[in-house]
């Protein structure tokens, strides 16, 4: 009874000070309350900071299937390289935080109020992965995982393991907590080895504008 009364009093205080609070599902451990004061700061479900590249400077292939390949001629005594190797290289053109659709995907409050997102609500973020005759969806997703280091899907939905609890900074008049996914825009190119033992682009690239399979939270300075 005392716990119930305390919860009601807390909710009343928050609403009375101008905040809108979504109480998290308490069935399991949650991440600690964040005190991040970065404008439009983004954190993952485990509280780790994330960044996006909306300017489109791009993220090149890493040390995976694409980044570790040699695109210059490779010596071969018999020069029988043609078709001997087929590889896929993923490259991000840009990344952006996309707010999820679904009830209570955003919640706002005034300074010093702790905001959170329900862990029992299902959210979703849509996107697209367009395959070609040379690059299938599965090959494209695998290349992105290897080269960029994330798993993408055309659509992502589900509940979050974290409530993203965040305390609005004291010097902010109004803050907003948002749940969403980091959406990647880019392409996956197929390369085939030719007679000169050089990897050359083959066919049209797969195009993707797809969310990561995982939730992130953004801290917005409204005013």
From TrEMBL:
User: Region Disordered: which residues?
Assistant: 22-80
Protein name (record) = Uncharacterized protein
Q: Where is there biased composition of kind Gly residues?
A: 55-69
Naturally occurring in which organism (per UniProt)? Curtobacterium citreum
Q: Span of the secretion signal?
A: 1-24
What is the top-level taxon of the source organism?
Bacteria
Give the record's keywords alphabetically.
Answer: Signal
